[in-house]
Amino acid sequence: MVPFTPLPDQTEPPPDSHWRAMQQTEVLRFVRSLLRAYDVFGAQNKRGRIVLDALQDAADLLLEFPPAVHSPKKFLFPNWDQLFRFKLDENILLQPETAAPPRIIFGMHPCDLHAVKILDDCLFEGETDSSYQAKREATLLIGVDCTPDEYCFCTSLGTDRIAAGFDLFLHRRDDLYLIQTGSERGLQLLKNHAPETFAGAEESPLPLQVKQCSNRVKFPIESLPSLMEEAYEDDIWQELGHNCLGCGSCTLLCPSCYCFNVQDKLEINLQEGQRIRTWDSCQFDQFAKVADGENFRSSQADRQRHRFYRKYKYLWDKHQRTACVGCGRCSRECLAQIEPVEVLNRLFAASPQPAISNQPGSEYQPQMARVLEVRILSEQDRLFRLQLPQTLDFTPGCFVELSVFGLGEAPFSIASAPDGGKQIEIVVRKAGALTQALHRTREGDSIGIRGPFGSGYPLANMVGKDLLLIAGGRGLLAIRSLLLAALQQRQQFGRITLLCGGRNIESLMFPQDLLDWHQSGLLDCRIAVKDKHNHWGIPAVDVSYLFRDLELNPQRTIAAVSGPPEMYRQINPLLFRMGLDGEDIYLNLERHMKCGLGKCGKCQINNICVCQCGPIFSYNSIKHLGEAIER
Amino acid sequence: MKVKIGLFDFAGCEGCQLTVMNLEEELLQVLQLVEIVEFRELMSERAEQIEIAFVEGSICRPGDRERLQQIRDRSQILVALGSCADNGGVNALGSDRTPEVLRQQVYGSQLPHLYTETPQPLSAVVKVDYRIPGCPIDGREFLAVLQALLLKQQPELPSFAVCVECKLAEYPCSFDYGQVCLGPITRAGCRAICIDGGGHCRGCRGLIDNPRTSPYHRILEQYGLSIDEILDQYRTFNIGEQESGK
Q1: How many CB pairs under 8 A join A and B?
Q2: Which of A154, A177, A489, B200 could lock B179 by a disulfide, CB 3.0 to 4.6 Å apart?
Q3: Residue A97 region by backbone torsions, left for phi larger than 0, else alpha for psi between -120 and 50, else beta
Q4: pLDDT tens digits, residue range A187-198?
């Protein structure tokens, strides 16, 4: 058997995927062949319900269906799972039985595959759960596209499609299926059990399909952390607690809930027994109860809140994704009609809008900032040091709106480090009337300012890590803010590497800073310009060239990338190739952030507003957005 | 030394004792550990001392109280076996009228030997140490309780509702078929056998420790039930709970 490797996390179909077309009859033949070699579990109609179960006859297998009652969790992390056997009187442990027979789950929906990633995250983190691992290794996952029903809301979470994490995936195309391989095991399976298909010509890849769900979260899911941050004391939890029956159906049916109980079951002879793991539920009375009778989560309201926080907050803080995949199983079976989409939308509707209103000058009316210093960086760039009436709270990558009465306003990245003071540095590149007017201002003048806005690079999360900063053109503004912040506490970080690219020396934003950093010894600063005849005498290459002899430890490294869109298309694959995780790559996706209040719609990427959720995003948080990088 | 156990019965259908007998293969294994010293369905012997007595049925006929007291006196541990013994069960269904009216309505005036009082659970007469609910009991639960007692542990009943076992088995929800079901508030342990059989839960195992009656009643009202109809749902097996459910 091919050795087990944890799933890569990516949105693009793996480049080594094979694509084969299969008629429905060939699929049937394929399944028959699999049945002769494996235990196959698939979706079937039982008592009018769609249930994943052991398949006896290939003809019973459903290929297009809404979510089954239980998710494939019931095979990978079963409710009754023997951890080991023991002998009572001799007090000895018998050999643990972890071996699982090779088997196939045929009919994993994209949401279910996402849920397996969540289980992987939780059960492989720290001490690997060997019982789960054994089943995971022994199980081949074959994905199929789904037909969402009125409870599904995967489209709101970006879990309606998946690019990896399966062995095979059957995409429906008109009257046939396009089979995509996702692993070496899947490829072998296809070769061995559908040889005719495999002998056929390779089909061109399908774009990942997008589903239509009428049940939708009515705000960008990136707003969840701040929303949940504020919602802890909300009255809604009391209401849910008041309505909840405490039956636990929501968590038992959830494809990613894995809380469990461990108990001993004795044989009738009372001489031996087994220690077993069964599913538990945070909704049950005894879940948080300890031996002396104390119940640490005694009200149903607290239990419901806990469930929502585990789904939408706690895992987000750790992995920037929800522990919910939008399959709708919890609400589909909830007699009390507790529906996460409704709860989240109500929380959002009740949350203060805009969320940043506590910051100075956040409405349309600017405050006046005094120009303390004007520094000429180049013919086109001037740096302004501004003094504001209040102290500013921002993270590197945030921006402000500068305005001149009569000429309007425009967004500018903050180029200085957040220092808790009242001063910031802004660089204005001369372009239109507004920037020309700004260039004419002198020390002592006043200009209009609103902000700061947005969410920047999470510097606190980067402490203790190596930083790989990659800047292209004007992208250096946000990176400078981040770098200066890191240099203020240099000892808190490991290696810092700055890769900076530009068209020519003249277009580099902070040439003097770059030279200073290069010579400082505090960081590894490498510069590339495309212009052959540059007076610095550096090779005329593009920034990706600087990766050539770059050595980094992918586990320790956080990458911050800031530049034009084409740079991400070029740099991201390099970072993935070096082994970086999508969680550890932060991108600056600045758009035309005209209002900064999440209202004007000009900076929207698909359904999210950059000015509020960004402009700095982790790769994983935006990878499902088609407009983010690909446009 | 095998532990001496006895099985006894009062007013009931003997279904719970039959469930024990139906354990057959497991029962033979159990006999390696216990000795059945009194069990009317199996034998005619009578024992002076019993370590664990399992008592089925409710108390309603002349002489029942005295006989139960004697069993209690002879037994170290007394376990109520099944709904009738545990909470009066279906026998208590007629307790909304006096025994005289009930007798008259059912038998007329010609059968004085069928004299009964309002059926009561064992706990109305003697101290009950443990209980195995259900109509009938679940054989596996009987074994689990017996195992615990043999190991001198406290037997534990599930604290969660029948819904849990129903969902685990992926049965369709009775409410989806327009049937009122007591599963959400009834103690699990039956593996939702009635729902498996195409029926709905009538609550034979009694309520869970912390039944969420107010959300439950709201749901029943949404399904169009009046308060009286809701109480009717409880009445089959949960006469005693009826008042608290109000």
Answers
A1: 81
A2: B200
A3: beta
A4: 999 999 998 887
